[in-house]
Write a structure and sequence with these properties.
CATH superfamily: Tetracycline Repressor, domain 2
Distance between the termini: 45 Å
CATH architecture: Orthogonal Bundle
Shape: elongated
Number of strands: 0
Largest sheet: none
Oligomer: single chain
Number of helices: 10
CATH class: Mainly Alpha
Helix content: over 70%
Order of helices and strands: HHHHHHHHHH
CATH topology: Tetracycline Repressor, domain 2
Radius of gyration: 19 Å
Strand content: under 5%
Length: about 180
Amino acid sequence: MREIAREAQIGLGSIYDYVNSKDDILYLFFENYVTTFFEKVRSRASQISDPLLRLEVTFRAFVEAAMELEDQVMLSYTQARYVKKDDLKVILRKESEVVEHFRKILSELGEGPFGSHLEANFLVFSGVFGVLRRWILKPSYSQNEIIEFLVQTQIREVTQRIFQEERISSPGEQGPRD
């Protein structure tokens, strides 16, 4: 708490006027981070009607937001274990809204062999690849190269699975679904 007060250039007593513990600070951080992250993603593609283009623009916004908020992303991955269980449930529900956002777009494209829920979770996790592996990637690749790589490879792979499944399934046949 002393470090936070020093960095914020306020008195330790002032911090305790707003929060009771480090847990409260972590919770407030996560809540702000997830809300900011999701708003950046959702706002970019809300007016696009074509689901394929919306998926690409949304995923690109997701990866760009992850890169822009890379320190927060890393903090969330490394510090989540310290958040109280009840607070973590709230945070994870908010994070699942991002997954659901992708799932809805994917569902508009069709259901691939693995279902839109699994594909959406895969996109969310693969979207932070550049941040989680930044220590090894940054010396060799620019941020834009990493973003382009992720957008091109992940969107292509997901849509190929979806469109491939549509071609193989006969009209009355159903494959694995959500």
